[in-house]
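B., you asked whether I could sanity-check this one before it goes into the benchmark set. Here's the sequence:
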Amino acid sequence: MFSSQIPLASLAALCQSLRVSHGAGLTLVHTFSQQAKKGPLAARAVCQRITERLKDGDSLEEALRDESRAFPNLFISMVSVGEQSGNLPEIFRALEEYYREQLTLRRDFIARSIWPVVQFVGAIVVITLLILIRGMLSANPETAFDPIGLGVGPLGALKFLLLIAIFLTVLFGGYFLATRVLGKTATVHRLLLAIPVVGPCVQALALTRLSLAMSLTLDTSLPTTKAMRQSLAATGNGAYEACGTSVAAAVKDGETVGTALRNTGMFPDEFVAAVENAEETGQIPEVMERQSQQYQELASLRMRTLTTAASFAVWAGVAILIIWAILRIAFSIKGVYDDAMKGV
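And here's what the prediction gave me:
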């Protein structure tokens, strides 16, 4: 929403088209010119600019560096390696598979989030209607019984909706302010990782992306330090991305990738053990690819748990409001009874 980066679906489609065209023997100029006319709509303008740069004699790496707002860093690094090594079609294939995996994860998450969101919106609608109808059924809304405590009729409904709006603004506005304006993304994401139910789901999603990225970058001529920084940045999680500098420094000083990851204290023992085993056997790309599949399955399970918890939280919130209304009714009846007894 706030990014000029090419959408994930368009990026996957672009990689597929580039793989097919360049793999068939078309030059890079012809390949990108073709995408500028017939490629994904979101990428056409960028592909046109890249075509002009290639015609002027610039390398694809140079052209992509100037389009860093449109492409993820991982894409730029991997394509640069592919251009230098002469295996661009294979790189585009790997990136296509990577972005399609990411797209699957995102769609799965959105699909599982729909029902709790529908429940939340439904609860708001029901409570708003309750407040409105309670005011309409009373001859004098000012003296009518107020089940929620915010008033009845249009004014009470407006207060309730305003309260919900303030809650959502604080929740999402606070997140945006902390991560985008104040630059505290790593801190916020560490806090999310510590929240029960939410944290394990966020971790599994991040480790899925990390495993996929490592299977790509560590199978190329990229220096291991740069490959790890790119892979950690690909997690989309500030807490893990912040480890990039320390991990790269440790690897540069002679530590293994597994040891460097373990020293951060951010990664589960089973993940680090898999990386260490992969390093010992010299099969990091293959092991990381299997790890990505395992963590994707784990992420799916944890997302199911998260959405179940979210549904329960919505119903719990509605139940609390109902209990609150019942208590108010009870105390109201008791007050009427006490007043009647005083008059006896």
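One thing to flag: The radius of gyration is 27 Å. Otherwise nothing jumped out at me.
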